[in-house]
C-alpha cells in the first residue's frame, strides 16, 4: 500500500511538472519576459522595374 | 510472467490515479481562478484617432495601431489598404472623400504591403470586421513575388497584433496556423522570435501532427481557466469617436475630363501619358533610350500571393465585412506582354464573383481604352484613377 502511494505521488508530481512547465509555461505567466524587438534580417529595396 | 503483469498493472493504476487526482485539483482550482482576475490586459490608448489621410506602417507607433483599429471599428469610415500607389494626391480616396464629401476614410500601407500582411492586420481585429467598410487595392505585380516579405511583415504586423491573433478564442486554428506557418517558414529571416511568434509557430507545427498531447491538455485547461493561462497579455484598444460634417455635393463626375486634360499636359516629353519628370528620371537610360518594360509570366500554380489573397478574401467574407476590392492596372502604352496577367486577373475576378464581393477591375491592356490620368506613370494611380475609385466607393457603399 505504501509503495503504491509513493508511485501515485511520483506520477502526480511528474504530471504536474509536465503541465506547469511544458504545457502552461508557468514561469512566463508569473514572470513575464519583456517584449523583444524583432527585425527582418533581409532588407528589401523597392524597385519599380 | 504473472509478476510482470502485476507490476505493469500497478504502474498503470498509479498513473491513472495520479492523473485523476491532478484533474480534480485543476478542476477545483479553476473555480478560484475564474472568480479572480488573473488575466492581464494591456490597454493601448492615445490622443490621435484619425479620420483622414494615410499611415505608412505600424512600426514603433502605438497610435498607428490605434488609428487602424479605430478605422476598422467605425462603421461610417472607409479603411483603404494598399501599397505603393498610396500617394499624397488630393484626389486619393483618403483625402478626397473626407475633405470634399465629409466621408471619413483612411489609407494604410506603402510598397510591399501585400495580402498576407493585410490578412494578419485584419485578423488581429476580427471582432470589429462585421459591416466594416474595407477597400483592398490589389496590384497585379504582387503575384510575381513570393508573397509578403519579412521586412514588410515586421512593419505591418506589430507584436500587439500577433498577441491578439494568438489569444483570440474566436479565431480559428486554421487562421492562427496560417500565421504560424508563415513565421515557421521564415524564422531564419527574423533576428529572433518573440514569445507569441514562437507559440504561433510551434502550435502550427504541432497541429500538423496527427495528435499533440500538450495542445489537447492546454485546450482542456483553457475551458476552465480561460485567459488566465495565457502567457501573453490581451490587448485592448481604447478607440475614440470622431465625426465629420457630411457634405451634400456629390457631383464628382464633372472633374473627370479636366483631370484627363491635366494628365496629358503633364506628359510633355512622351506619348505614353507618363508624368514628364518620372519619364526622365525612371524610364530613360543613360543614353536617353527608353528602358524596356516587359511583364514577366505569372505562375499560377502554387502562387503564394494568390493563396494569401484567398485567405484574406475568406476572412472578410466569413466575418461579414462590408469589403470591396480594386484590381489596379499597368500602363499599356509602356508595358509589353500584358497578356501575362490575363489568367491572374480572370482568377481574381472569378474568386471575387464567387465570394459575392464587389470589385472594380481597372486592369486594361488595350492602349485605345486607356484613359490618360488613370496612372501617374507606368504603375501608380493618378488623379483620374483615384477618382474612378472614389466613384466606385460611393456607388458600392450607397453614399
Descriptive overview:
- The complex is a heterodimer of chains A (49) and B (399).
- Chain A has 49 residues and is mainly α.
- Chain A has helices at residues 2-23, 26-30.
- By secondary structure, chain B is an alpha/beta fold.
- Chain B has 14 helices and 8 strands.
- In chain B, the strands form 2 sheets. Chain B has a 6-stranded parallel beta sheet with strand order 2-4-3-5-7-8, with helices on both faces. In chain B, strands 1-6 form a two-stranded parallel sheet.
- Chain B is elongated.
- The chains are: A mainly alpha (49), B alpha/beta (399).
- Chain A binds chain B through residues 4, 7-12, 14-16, 19, 22-25, 28-29, 32-33, 35-44, 46, 48-49, and chain B through 10-11, 13-15, 17-19, 21-22, 26, 40, 84, 111-112, 149-154, 159, 188-195, 197, 214, 217-218, 221, 229-233, 282, 291, 293, 378-379.
Outline the secondary-structure elements.
The complex is a heterodimer of chains A (49) and B (399).
Chain A: H1 2-23, H2 26-30
Chain B: H1 2-35, E1 41-45, E2 54-55, H2 62-73, E3 78-81, H3 93-101, E4 105-108, H4 115-124, E5 133-138, H5 150-156, H6 159-167, H7 173-185, H8 195-208, H9 213-225, E6 234-238, H10 255-266, H11 276-283, H12 304-318, E7 322-327, H13 342-355, E8 359-361, H14 383-396
Parallel strand pairs in B: 1-6, 2-4, 3-4, 3-5, 5-7, 7-8
Helix pairs in contact in B: 4-6, 4-12, 6-8, 7-8, 12-13
